[in-house]
Write a structure and sequence with these properties.
Strand content: 15-25%
Number of helices: 11
Oligomer: single chain
Largest sheet: 8 strands, mixed
Order of helices and strands: HHEEEEEEEEEEHHEHHEEHHEEEEHEHH
Distance between the termini: 29 Å
Radius of gyration: 24 Å
Helix content: 10-25%
Structural class: alpha+beta
Shape: globular
Strand order of the largest sheet: 12-13-14-15-16-17-11-18
């Protein structure tokens, strides 16, 4: 892919090397490895857990599970956010059971110990009865490192962790130029899946599977000719790996399969998109590939006048192309100029062969106002829908095809006949991801 020709140049990441690790099936099935991963890696990394917009007022809280822990995030009087382990320091009872709410104090349902939103113990019954003295003023909720960025709440269980900015590396500067903090959630489907969390992240660390899984490609298919709505051909995709362990793919988009009929006429939804940006679909009959540059130029020229004020911070390529990131360890996201596809996997409390999978979508206010987001729930963000895998309900178009492979692949990893991966260069990000997990377990954090 050519470098950007405008002032919004896409910066390259440093070249990375891998060690050629074998990556055997036990990494996805072993309880022992699961426990090593938790202690060595999950408790040492920054995790995207909450959303600031869900905590508008002091005392508003959100609780998110991750592995065996539950993290409580609370809006403070000064406008900041603090995070705590969801556990009373008296006898270990969880403080909340729901996913969100608002309080003046958190009151433990076991003995009525009451905690303020800043973690201070405010009340304990029979406080004169404690040999070590009144626990108020001595005991606090156990705090977790917490920062906010791009409208999300990030936490790190390591008290000696680096800053979130240092951890994110180039992601920080790239996302800081967007207005993602103002975007609203328009789709929110979550499901427990019968597979290890790494199966999910491996899949979103490569586009090698897209022609087969999503487009029905066979051995007779010329993969060079497959473009789809997103072009995943490896020779025309930009692959980047950061020193910090986060990865990026940039894949051209804007036209492809399903965009034209047999006579070359532009079909929906591309036809309506062209008209919205004052382009005539007839001008692109038989040449859908020319819509990519035309849409980029039209959005640059007309965006501000149509209310898309954030376009002055977006590179031309992002008007049409998929900027797909995988943030170590468990967050994959495709960022376009007006949409943010949120794909997150979290480990089960104690079963290495289950994970919690989120398939969410965020959209810019301007795209919602223009009517591009049909699933939006009005002024408020769409609430979370918890789906049951065994019910057969789809977690979302397109992603349901990935999920089907997640489950069958997990079955394959249990076979003694699987001896380890044999990866193409375009799948290098998978090997590096796993090697970084091994580095964390060994105590070698990225520098």
């Amino acid at each position: 892919m050519a470098e950007s020709s405008n002032i919004y140049e896409i910066q390259s990441y440093p070249e990375q090397q891998t060690r050629g690790s074998l990556l055997e099936g036990y990494r996805y099935t072993s309880r022992s490895f699961f426990e090593q991963e938790w202690e060595g890696m999950w408790t040492k990394v920054w995790l995207l857990l909450g959303r600031e917009s869900e905590l508008p007022n002091p005392g508003d809280w959100q609780m998110e599970p991750v592995g065996p822990e539950e993290i409580l995030m609370v809006r403070q009087k000064d406008g900041g956010v603090k995070a705590f382990y969801n556990v009373c320091q008296h006898r270990g009872n969880p403080l909340v059971e729901d996913s969100k709410g608002s309080v003046r104090r958190f009151v433990c349902k076991y003995h009525s110990w009451a905690w303020m939103p800043d973690g201070e113990l405010n009340f304990a019954p029979d406080r004169e009865d404690f040999p070590e003295g009144n626990p108020c003023g001595k005991v606090r909720l156990q705090e977790v490192a917490c920062e906010t960025f791009a409208g999300f709440i990030w936490v790190n269980m390591d008290p000696n962790c680096v800053s979130l900015k240092e951890y994110l590396g180039p992601i920080w500067s790239e996302w800081q130029l967007r207005d993602i903090h103002t975007w609203k959630r328009t789709l929110a489907n979550t499901m427990w899946l019968p597979c290890n969390w790494k199966v999910v992240l491996d899949n979103f660390n490569e586009s090698y599977h897209v022609p087969t899984v999503h487009m029905g490609a066979t051995t007779e298919t010329n993969r060079k000719e497959i473009r789809g709505h997103i072009n995943t051909y490896f020779k025309e995709t930009r692959f980047d790996l950061s020193n910090e362990g986060h990865n990026r793919m940039v894949m051209e988009g804007g036209y492809g399969v399903g965009s034209t009929d047999g006579e070359g006429n532009i079909l929906e939804p591309l036809a309506s998109q062209l008209r919205y940006w004052e382009l005539d679909p007839e001008d692109f009959k038989g040449a859908p590939e020319k819509t990519r540059l035309a849409i980029q130029q039209a959005k640059r020229r007309l965006g501000a006048g149509k209310g898309f004020s954030h376009y002055d911070k977006v590179p031309d390529e992002q008007f049409t192309d998929a900027f797909h990131y995988t943030l170590f360890p468990n967050f994959a996201v495709s960022v376009w100029s007006d949409g943010f596809h949120f794909l997150r996997a979290r480990p089960h409390r104690d079963d290495p062969q289950q994970c919690l999978f989120d398939n969410w979508w965020y959209a810019s206010p301007a795209s919602i106002e223009a009517g591009f987001e049909r699933n939006h729930g009005g002024e408020d963000e769409v609430p979370l829908t918890m789906l049951d895998f065994d019910s057969g309900v789809s977690i979302g178009p397109g992603i349901e095809e990935d999920v089907a492979v997640f489950v069958t692949q997990q079955r394959g990893f249990r076979s003694r006949g699987f001896k380890g991966v044999y990866l193409s260069k375009q799948e290098m990000r998978i090997r590096r991801y796993h090697e970084l997990i091994d580095d964390y377990i060994a105590g070698r954090l990225p520098k």
